[in-house]
Input
Amino acid sequence: MIPEELASLKITGPDEEIRRLAKARWDTLAKPVDGLGYLEDMICRAAAVQGSVMPDLSKKALVIMCADNGVVSEGVSQTGRKVTYEVAELMGKR
Output
């Protein structure tokens, strides 16, 4: 994308009316109101962002982010960089 195209992009905030409608829809389903807790909240947020009461959640991803402070010698961390690497590698194999 060229700079002019980037400059012309318009980013809008979540549609609060869609969020309200999505919440109202979830409240009509055969379950206790807010019975799924934060999951319902996340789905209503996704609906608001996508601008659809029924958001498309078919594409999923897992992002694993790790960091190592590298100051084992100062006692800030009890494990070195190799342990951080190995844990991240194992998480990625799941």
